[in-house]
Amino acid sequence: MPTYSYACKQCGHRFDAVQSFSDAALTECPECGGEVRKQYGSIGVTFNGSGFYRTDSRGSGSGASGGGSSSSSTSSKSETKTSAPSSAS
Known about the structure:
The chain is 33% helix and 17% strand. By secondary structure, the chain is an alpha+beta fold. It has a domain at 3-39. The radius of gyration is 29 Å and the shape is elongated. The N and C termini lie far apart (71 Å). Mean pLDDT is 72; it is low at 63-76.
């Protein structure tokens, strides 16, 4: 069951209540009996597992073809690096 945060409009008392989704929202402050309102804040959401990032969606099949293009681009980069110092010398 979710936990909801409430704050009293009159006295400023803040408290949390564990309620079911089907339960009605609280309307009365337990301290002063004044009107309360729900507090909405940031929610901590964690996505676990594969497929949430671009790099996670690459399978072994596309990784092999991607690896071939990566190694060829790496080779061309190393050739460029090799020829650049030769020109400078």
